[in-house]
């Protein structure tokens, strides 16, 4: 442990200029935030002409009726225009708030509100919690019209929206309530670790955050998910029999098999699994069951079980923890930096002893451009995992010695095509746009890979 702290101290010393140099961090954040926004706008402009194509890629031509493809192109075009406007609008709002000292105002407002109920500045953790929620609430208000437009205009226009105005407001209030109920204890412990551990907070904070993530794995399906959706046991029948048989052959620790009422809000479909290593739960959207055949849903689940078989969730969690550790290792230099707070309009009295929550929030803002680069790397890793899970499905018959699985690859291909058609997903995608935004390969990339995997499997069998 001493070796770790020694290395972290070296990092802090290398960044010691942050504590003394009067760097204009606000200008830096403004420049790089707008750079990221303009780059994302450029990607949308690159992608936009592809929505004018009148025919799908040759490999998909037989699967799209002309009318359906035209609808998917119009849907993609409308989403792109909305994304371009909303991206610029959100950045403009954030830029205005930043320029006029919204962060400093929020801290002062939090202190003022607490003073009204008898809490002084010595209650820094309490003030930090009020500060975070005040910032979240005020900054989210300007984007509410965008959420409403996306749901009731964009999604409604293309036949996907099932959300009523009452459900929209209810979900919004539930989300805010959950943020308070779960966020307040999390922030309290998060900030207490800093107070308790001092400059040696990194390993202790890492331990707490890992424990919190594992706790959420248990709480999400039992407490959080039921607040928004109804999970019911998948009815007996062909689909349930197929999935249970598949899980049994792979020794997948299936505990519950759920159907979720995704159609309550949208016509889009999905399937996923979650849980602890010894107890897994599979959730299938009712829209997926309605839109695809049982053997195709089985193929989708075979792909998902491929992620489990190759420990992709665990690997992603490890990568995430390495990223978190790197961020926390850089933070100590910014934790005790009065010039940092002064550059964001905080008064001298507050900047002289920077509140941990304020320093961490500003530090996160500074890291924004680097996080964009990290997201590209994470997308590349996730896309690699998606190809691996597709290959798992193709080679499943050799693994379980079951000839009934011999067409799993073609089944998965049909399921992917069906989901893209039903969801009006874009099938013409610019490579740079995809690399930046997509955690999954494009449909044509996956279909081409599935064919290659099948050829490779047959060669091995010869």
Automatic annotation (TrEMBL):
Coiled coil: none annotated. Zn(2+) binds at residues 303, 307, 386. GO terms for molecular function: metal ion binding; metalloendopeptidase activity. It catalyses: Hydrolyzes the peptide bond -P2-(S-farnesyl or geranylgeranyl)C-P1'-P2'-P3'-COOH where P1' and P2' are amino acids with aliphatic side chains and P3' is any C-terminal residue. Gene3D superfamilies: Metalloproteases ('zincins'), catalytic domain. The active site is at residues 304, 390. Residues 47-230 form the CAAX prenyl protease 1 N-terminal domain. The keyword Transmembrane helix applies. One of its GO terms (cellular component) is endoplasmic reticulum membrane. It is a multi-pass membrane protein. One of its GO terms (biological process) is CAAX-box protein processing. InterPro entries: CAXX_Prtase_1 (IPR027057), Peptidase_M48 (IPR001915), Peptidase_M48_N (IPR032456). The chain crosses the membrane at residues 27-45, 125-154, 175-195, 201-220. Keywords: Endoplasmic reticulum, Hydrolase, Membrane, Metal-binding, Metalloprotease, Protease, Transmembrane, Transmembrane helix, Zinc. Its cofactor is Zn(2+). Residues 235-452 form the Peptidase M48 domain. The keyword Zinc applies. Its main location: endoplasmic reticulum. Its EC number is 3.4.24.84. Binds 1 zinc ion per subunit. Proteolytically removes the C-terminal three residues of farnesylated proteins. Belongs to the peptidase M48A family. This is CAAX prenyl protease.
